[in-house]
Amino acid sequence: MGTNVDWQRYGSLSYCTAGQQPATTRRLQMRFMMIVKASADSENGVMPQPEVFKAMGKFNQDLIDAGILLAAEGLHPSDKGSRVTFKDGKHVVKDGPFAETKELISGFWIIQVNSQEDALQWVKRIPMGNGETIELRRVFEAADFAEVVPEKEIAREQAWRDANQKPITG
């Protein structure tokens, strides 16, 4: 779009014109989603053992104490959910369960840290069982859309995020 974007204010690295490389290498915080992949047990509604809940509670408290936890939730099995497919201006609703467990998630955390390396260090601390999988994905920031969204809209989106997405405190 060629608009000027205040990258420092909106979550990237420095002030520059959209499409230019930022002039500094200052690291700012970024959000990551740590995704718990579903298992046969989670899809069958099998609850974790009490010691697992205790260990997960400690991990969650560590995230809170570090000031980086924005959200953390477990999800019901897919038989309690629906998928909506949009095609040719219409939508088709398919109720769960869904066959491909490996494509499903059973929970997530959203954390705000300085780098993917920091996020990976937290992933390695999650008290997961043998064979369980966590997927780590970076969350888009408002400034990531500067090439296609006017600066005014980016500022509005960032203001909403700043006002509403705060670390959980304990």
Radius of gyration, taken over Cα atoms and rounded to an integer in Å: 19 Å
Structural class: alpha+beta
Low-confidence stretches: 1-27
How many angstroms does the end-to-end distance come to?
42 Å
Give the percentage of residues in beta strands. Answer: 25-35%
Mean pLDDT value: 85
Task: Count every beta strand, where a strand is a DSSP E run of 2 or more residues.
Answer: 8
- Give the helix tally: 4
**Global outline:** flat
The portion of residues assigned to helices is: 10-25%
- Largest sheet: spatial strand order: 4-7-3-8
Please give the oligomerization state of what you see: single chain
SSE ordering: EEEHHEEEEHEH
Largest sheet: 4 strands, antiparallel
Can you walk through the features of this model?
A four-stranded antiparallel beta sheet has the order 4-7-3-8, with helices on one face. It has a two-stranded antiparallel sheet with strand order 1-2. It is α+β, with helices and mostly antiparallel strands and 170 residues long. The protein is built from four helices and eight strands. The longest helix has 16 residues. It starts with a strand and ends in a 6-residue tail after the last helix. The chain is flat, with a radius of gyration of 19 Å.
